Amino acid sequence: MEIWDAYDEDENLLGIDLVRDEAIPSGMYHQVVSVLVKHVDGEYLLTQRCFTKIGRPGYWEPSCGGSALKGDTPEMAAIREVEEETGLIVKNPVLIDKRRRADDEVGGYFHYYYVAETDCDKTTVKLLEGETIGYKWVDPKDLLDMLDSGMVIPFQVECLTEYVEKISKTF
User: What does pTM read for this prediction?
Assistant: First the structure.
């Protein structure tokens, strides 16, 4: 059972536990992270969602993501999610965006977007069964093309396009 901390709309900790797959009461939020993994050579990791996943099966997404567990900071959750979903170790993720969202299907959440760098052997990415079925490393131009392809989760495109356009001006 996955337990999350509950927050109010100003992200004040409420001292209430939320449980994954249970309805989040109106006015309560939890924290979610998405992490774009950047290799030291300048390429970015994309993972492909399993075709059995609910919500956007087969879509590509920037690397890793999930909910912060009870007691986690968003940064701790970012580091943990990358290791859980890819086997890669990252340190010091850099926050590039944060948004408050309310979704009828999953409830309210604060979404933190990070970029985290690794110097791993790029062939050592481990896919998480039931989560991902593929991965690829892409340069900033190809990442921007992927974001425009319609095969990346729309709310991730919205948050990452500005970042990618900024970095793509350097090549």
Answer: 0.88
Of 123, 4, 113, residue with least CA distance to 62 = 113
In the chain the first and final C-alpha atoms are separated, in Å, by 45
Nearest Cα residue to 82 out of 42, 124, 133, 116: 116
Of 60, 74, 65, 61, which is closest to residue 29 (Cα–Cα)?
Answer: 74
Which residue from 170, 164, 130 is spatially nearest to 148, judged by alpha carbons? 164
Q: Which residues are paired to 101 by β-bridges?
A: 109
Q: Is residue 77 a contact partner of residue 68, using CB atoms and an 8 Å limit?
A: yes
User: 140-147 vs 154-168: helix axis angle to the nearest 10?
Assistant: 150
The mean pLDDT of 130-147, rounded to a whole number, is 90
Lowest mean pLDDT among 1-10, 112-121, 128-137, 151-160: 151-160
CATH number of 3-164: 3.90.79.10
The closest of 24, 35, 7, 44 to 164, measured between CA atoms, is 44
Sketch the domain layout of the chain as residue ranges. 3-164
Task: Look up residue 100 and give its two tokens.
Answer: 């408050």
